[in-house]
Amino acid sequence: MSHQQESLHPEEFAEAAAAAVADALGREPRQAAAVLAASGLFGVCAQQERGGLGLGLEFGVPVCEAAGKLQLHFPLVEQMLLARAFGDSDIADALVAGEKIGVIAWQGSVQQKSATHAAFADACDWILVADEDGASLLQAQSVSVQANDAIDPEYPLYDIAIEAPAVQARLSAKAWAALKNDAHVLYAGFINGLSGKALEQAAEYTATRVQFGRPLSAKQVVRHTLARMRLLHEASTAALQRALRENEYGSARPADTAFAGAVSNAVFIIEKAIHLHGGMGFTWELPLHYSLRDVRKIEAAFNNGQQLENLGAQFIAAA
Amino acid sequence: MDFHSNPIIPDPASAPDAYRSHARAWLRENLPSYMRADSLDYRTPTLAESSDWEAAMYRAGLAGMTWPEAYGGHGLTLREHLAVNKEIGALPMPESVSSIGKELAGPIIMTVGTEAQKQSFLPAILQMREYWCQGFSEPDAGSDLVRLRTRAVQEGERWRINGQKIWTSGAAKAHYCLLLTRTGTVADKHRGLLMFAVPMNTPGIRVAPIRSIDNKESFAEVFFDDVVVPDSARLGAPDEGWSAAIRVLSIERATNRMYRAWRFECELRQLIQACKSDTQLSRRLQETYYQRRIGRLVCEIDALKGLVERSVEQLMSGEAIGARGSLTKLFWSECHQAFMALAQEIVSQVGPASSPLAQRARKHFTTAYLFSHAETIYAGTTEVQLDIIAQRIMQLPKDI
After folding, report:
1. Residue A167: strand pairing partners
2. What CATH number is given for B16-126 in this structure?
3. Which H helix or E strand runs over B193?
4. pLDDT tens per residue, chain A (319 residues)?
5. Phi, psi (5° rounding) for residue A199?
6. Which of B23, B115, B238, B393 is the most core-located residue (most Cβ within 10 A)?
7. Cβ separation B394–A230 shorter than 8 A
8. What are phi and psi of A132, to 5 degrees?
9. pTM of the predicted protein model
10. CATH of B132-236, one of 3.40.190.10, 3.20.140.10, 2.40.40.10, 2.40.110.10
11. Which chain A residues are within 8 Å of B394, Cβ to Cβ?
12. Is A295 left (phi over 0), alpha (psi -120 to 50) or beta?
């Protein structure tokens, strides 16, 4: 840990990040990129030589949590991941400065000539896609994108058709694997932000909504549901904090269990939050549905069901 | 038993790695195979054998880590306690036969006991010379201790106690009962609650074992009929003992048996190894249905580790743990109950032609499955924990 990291605390980033994210809300992607870049959010975990802060992922987590809490519709996590992964090239400079927007297609490959589960691919400059031995950063204008709006008509995922790709840069297999682990960390932060806010909203609503002469939160079944939501949010947060700490032997921990747990817990929390809002929860006006869509999109992008099976299979093999 | 009982214990402050290695090596070298739940040699240890084992652990520096040296402890911090507990959890060893003494009575005595009580009781607990039971619950006062009726009446320098306790774990073997009484009436509610250290061989005490769901008699009804104890048996002043107990309980809820997450992982490994040893069960492990459930369990175990480690760090930095112990208690109890249900589902397929390890696993996990139903009841039921989280952590209003 550098001297700078020793004197900084991740939680101090949350407030500043929240202010920047709030400023970016409702803006077009290019404008939002400029606002977020001006606050240095893309470069928190990117190298200092590239305009970043050179900090560890633990400093990126509160930034992503703030984005989740405020329901930011911008590929912030992807931008941070790419700025960190391409730290040895001027690609990182452009990403950190918000001059370029990068996204990631989490499934498919260049060899398959198609990739899927890329958010904001219609508004980006570069798309990272897996290839035979790592991943390729493709120029967005060299591929065609098709919205898959089944889960989210406003902010769909995109399918990418790759016929004659122009490759801007590559990541080795090792660097691609590292990026995916980093993605587990930052997405878990983003997801915990989404679920934390949903819990907060549900608690506030049920405390003020009076039915049968008392607030909803006075009823035991509602209180217990909220308590369970809180428990799962605490579990997700603690699991992520643990994943960020080195193990007893000084090695980094994988973040796959923290990520998978965050997804499952967030689905429960957000769905319950929607339910506790009653008929209002079913409407478009109550923005909780955006959080549910976001979590489900991330769950799909990483095929979380398959991830859980892999975690089980890995444990079985090692036992 | 001949344990390597007086090893040199590395200083954790200057050599944390050596300290951890010592804990790991000592436990692995000394745990008898018949105490290992995953061993074909396993049998239920006798009380004397368990006691010898735990006394040897203590002499090896692996019990009483955080207790003051003046009372027989090792004067270390919760970090060392956690480090040792991780190693304890990593092995399939029996639960302590003195957990009430080590995790409840000891900390309460340390908080409110007189110096003489501390000197008398605390070393004896660690050295496994004296076991304790917990006399809190009553037939009409389970989760709701306000309804407690067992009465203590002062008669000069003595107290006369009458009443009944129930669900008292380990009462038949205990030397002392950590007894909660009231000096007034039920109408006094939380006022006038008074705690005692009552020798279980005091005339007037009768223990009636209760057969539990796992076909054991590990807990009992305890009757107190005109039991007379000296004033020196009192732990704190009226109200003081109970309020201390509440504080201790909140910490204990977060920190007792800190090894649980690591033990759950160990149990999962044991289950899988047993399955792998058997042709039919090993096929189960290839099914994505079970892989997914095991994967989910692995996530929960990691989250539980996170909750425990976070509690330790919070306590180490001087934060009060308060009601947050309820989060850990609720999480581990439900996680383990679901795990045991999964284990039961798997081992129920073990038959006479199954491998010896699988048959051993069937016996172990069936018993553990049945016992796991106690886990969401004792130390505050699930509903009590949910109430605490709603009320004290989330501060949800009951009215406006």
Report:
1. A138
2. 1.10.540.10
3. strand B193-199
4. 455 556 778 888 888 899 999 999 999 999 999 999 999 999 999 999 999 999 999 999 999 999 999 999 999 999 999 999 999 899 999 999 999 999 999 999 999 999 999 999 999 999 999 999 999 999 999 999 999 999 999 999 999 999 999 999 999 999 999 999 999 999 999 999 999 999 999 999 999 999 999 999 999 999 999 999 999 999 999 999 999 999 988 899 999 999 999 999 999 999 999 999 999 999 999 999 999 999 999 999 999 999 999 999 999 999 9
5. -65, -45
6. B23
7. yes
8. -60, -35
9. 0.95
10. 2.40.110.10
11. 203, 226-227, 230
12. alpha
A296 to chain B, any CB pair closer than 8 A? The answer is no
CA distance readout (Å), A264 to A270, A301, A307, B340 = 10, 14, 12, 21
Which tokens go with A295?
């979590």
- Tokens matching residue A185: 């960390």
Domain residue limits, chain B? 16-126, 132-236, 257-393
- The DSSP 8-state label assigned to residue A254 in this structure reads P
Query: Is ipTM > 0.85 here?
Result: yes
Q: Distance between CA B224 and CA A26 in Å, rounded?
A: 71
Tokens matching residue B387: 């109430």
CATH 1.20.140.10 for domain A176-318: yes
State residue A251 phi and psi, 5-degree precision.
-100, 155
Q: Can you tell me whether residue A310 is helix, strand or coil?
A: helix
State whether B397 and A261 contact (CB < 8 Å). no
Sign of the CA dihedral with A290 first, then A293, A297, and A303 last: positive
CA A139 to chain CA centroid, Å, is 22
The residue in chain B having the minimum alpha-carbon distance to the alpha carbon of residue A232 is B331
Location of each CATH 1.10.540 domain in chain A: 1-100
Query: Selecting from 2.60.40.10, 2.40.110.10, 2.40.40.20, 3.10.180.10, what CATH number does the domain A101-165 have?
Result: 2.40.110.10
CA dihedral A189, A192, A196, A199 (to 10 degrees): 170
Amino acid at A108: G
Report d(CA A122, CA A53) in Å as an integer: 29
Cβ–Cβ below 8 Å for A312 and B390: no
Q: Taking the domain B257-393, which CATH number applies?
A: 1.20.140.10
